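Response to reviewer comment R2.3. The reviewers asked that we include at least one raw input/output pair. We reproduce the pair for Iron-containing alcohol dehydrogenase here without editing.
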Amino acid sequence: MTGFVYQMPTKIISGRDCLTGRGELLRPLGKKALIVTGRSSSENGALADAVTALRNNGREFSVFDGVRPNPTLDCVQAGAEQARKTGAEFVVGIGGGSALDAAKAVAVLARQPRPDEEIFSGGWSEDVLPVAAVPTTAGTGSEVTQYAVLTNDFAKTKTSISSPAFFPKLAFLDGKYMLGLGRAVTVNTAADALSHAVEGMFTLRSTPLSDLAALESVRILFSLFPKLEEENFRLSCEDRDELLYASMLAGTVIAQSGTTAVHAMGYPLTYHHGTPHGEANGILLGEMLALCAERLPERTEKILAAAGLKTTGEFKAALKRVLRSDAAYTREELERYAREAAKNPKLAGVTYRPDEEDLLRIYLESGLVKKEGTGAGV
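Raw output as returned:
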């Protein structure tokens, strides 16, 4: 076994009503909180639980609920300004990946203000407000990563900022907040988690521990695929807990390994066309794994075994049944996105070493070329 470094500083608290039941864990973070969230948290009960936990432990708070999907720099700058004005000493992020990423960005910008044009230049210090994360979707794993993915209008894509200081101090996992999620959001976020687990197996930074988490995440997600395929879609609270656990595991994977080609290729589909992030990843993941099977068959076989499958064809078919995506783009667009993705730093540590031709092949063989006269892919 080769040497490795594994860092996971986030304390994970899992279980029913864990936020209100273990709210005392918030006390060491500070006396004044800024809750960063979107509007859905008031509907799923997470915001009310956070307010209860803070009040029960004598903490003051204000709420910034301006987060929307794919958070912009205007959004996180406004949140950071509110944090400074209210004297917030810590941040509670509530929501899906967008809200949690925004919370981490707010936490750093509150202490390290920067103009928009310098936000993606790196070089962050450790002077960051502590963050407690409460995920209300199961996909990004942002509650256990050091990344914050933001809309980058300068580069016309999505770009992550990162630092070890961005890891949340606490992550509260409770599947009850996801009971009201519809099929599309549930499936797309599950596909995002799956992409994290699979991509994390094919980077130079993967470790034996991250591989274990990746394979367990794949196993759990595929065990739930039959329920995700059902026409009369319905998941129990326990099923939601399992999805959330699998997402968290996959988050710990990319915290060590980072993401790879699928994310680099999916970002322009989201930025330019509004394709949900998880769906964009999911429709590309099968062909990426097929390429990996040619170049790294042993690792691919481990993933297939964890999924209970024998071939990459079965893997692709399972994803198509679950996603039911009709996303489609022109060939010219896909050629441009392949050129752009080939320059993405995410490809530097990829063990299967895809080039621009490989990336275009993944796009095309994923059936994404728009048919003439329709909006559907081939």
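The radius of gyration is 20 Å. The first helix runs from residue 18 to 21. Further pairs are available on request from the corresponding author.
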